[in-house]
Amino acid sequence: MGYGSYSAADWNKLKLSRNLSAQQSVQEVFKRTSCNPKFDPRYIGVRECFDSDDHPHTTPIVVGLDVTGSMGYLAVKVAQESLHELILKLYSTNSVEDPALMCAAYGDCHDASPLQVTQFESDIRIVEQLLDLYFENGGSGQVVPTCLWSFLSNHTNIDAINKRGEKGFVFTIGDNAPIRTSFIPETIRRVIGDSLPAATRESILREVRKKFHVFHIMIGRGGNADLLPGHKMNISETEIDCIPEIVISTIQMQKGMDIRQAVEQWDVIKQPVVRSAVSQLQLIDTGRSITL
Question: Residue 131 belongs to a domain with what CATH number?
Answer without folding.
Answer: 3.40.50
